[in-house]
UniProtKB/TrEMBL annotation:
Source organism superkingdom: Bacteria
Region Disordered: start-end pairs: 33-79
UniProt biased composition (Low complexity): 33-44
Protein name in UniProt: YaiO family outer membrane beta-barrel protein
Compositionally biased intervals (Pro residues): 51-61
């Protein structure tokens, strides 16, 4: 029995030693694998820490020919009044504004009477997306000062040329010159004509020179535009030097400023706000009658060949039309691209 017991004990001891040897041989690879896993996890965490956050989506780009090659410039929604600075297409715009002024004393002025303004404009690139020429004509319809039937008051015609330097990031600078020709013809002594012209200027103060009879004007301006992700900002500062050519009406100097801020909600829809200032520089008027302001929130749809817009136009502070408290208007426009 002792010999059998000793034999079993020796075999169990050999089996135990064999298992210990197997464990010793397998331990180093396991430790190496664990160490490798720790190293990989550390490297991945370090790479994540060094990776910068994703940048905002850039604005949509449009290929255009520049020099002998092709570059990309961003597209941007057109403001109701200002042009897209570096557009590639020929464009024509028709805009209709309908509004009314609210007098302080309804016994002297006919308030709440509709006044309508038609604006026709066109612009086309003449050299790549850097130089442009265009023209604008406006007319007014209404009878704000009397009970006569509404009548049409034709305005002046402006021819314009401008240049722009732009980058693929959306930053652009430009300058140009508009020349107003005296195509408007109405009796300066007519109360009806003067009231309709003043009412049109009250609704759209930046259109002062369009509704001046027998007036020739120079309109230099500078433009700035920037696009950051879905946000767009555009600014135009201009001067107007007007002088009469049909009678001794003298000279006038004005400052015009327009600011447009918008956000592109979708690829084809943008929500924006325009603000305007007309400032009389050289006239002998009271200080409270020198500056006139208006704001216009709007929505623009950007399709390939048609870009409609709709908005509200409202004065801020005393309007240009005398003895009135405020003006309010609706505006709708349609831009055709080809």
């Amino acid at each position: 029995m002792d010999s059998i017991y000793d034999a079993v004990r020796r075999r169990l001891g050999l089996l135990k030693g064999f298992m210990a040897l197997v464990t010793a041989l397998e331990a180093p690879p396991a430790r190496a694998q664990a160490a490798g896993a720790d190293t990989a996890a550390s490297a991945e965490a370090k790479q994540k820490a060094q990776t910068p956050p994703p940048a905002p989506l850039p604005p949509p780009l449009l290929d255009t020919k520049v020099g002998g090659g092709t570059t990309q410039l961003p597209t941007a929604p057109r403001a109701p009044t200002l042009p897209e600075l570096a557009h590639a297409e020929r464009e024509a715009t028709i805009e209709w504004t309908t509004g009314a002024y609210y007098p302080r004393d309804s016994s002297e002025l006919r308030g709440h009477v509709p006044v309508h303004i038609l604006r026709l404009s066109t612009e086309l690139p003449v050299h790549q997306r850097s130089f442009f020429v265009g023209g604008t004509y406006e007319a007014a319809l209404g009878s704000p000062a009397s009970t006569r039937a509404p009548f049409v008051l034709g305005g002046n015609v402006e021819l314009q040329g401008r240049g722009v330097w732009s980058t693929s990031t959306g930053l652009a600078f430009g300058a140009g010159l508009g020349i107003m020709f005296p195509t408007a013809s109405f009796d300066r002594e007519s109360r009806d004509a003067f009231s309709l012209a003043s009412a049109a200027i009250a609704l759209r103060p930046w259109d002062y020179s369009f509704f001046q009879n027998g007036t020739f004007a120079f309109r230099p301006f500078v433009d700035v535009h920037d696009t950051v992700g879905p946000f767009i900002i555009q600014f135009r500062e201009g001067l107007e030097w007007t002088f009469g050519v049909r009678d001794d009406t003298g000279q006038r100097v004005f400052s015009l400023a327009t600011l447009y801020v918008a956000v592109r909600l979708f690829d084809t829809v943008a929500l924006g706000m325009e603000a305007y200032q007309l400032y009389i520089i050289d006239a002998y008027v009271a200080d409270e009658r020198r500056a006139f302001y208006a704001i216009s929130p709007s929505v623009r749809m950007m399709l390939r060949h048609v870009q409609p817009s709709i908005g509200i136009l409202r004065s801020v502070g005393p309007p240009f039309y005398p003895a009135t408290d405020t003006t309010t208007a609706m505006r709708a426009g349609l831009t055709l691209l080809w």
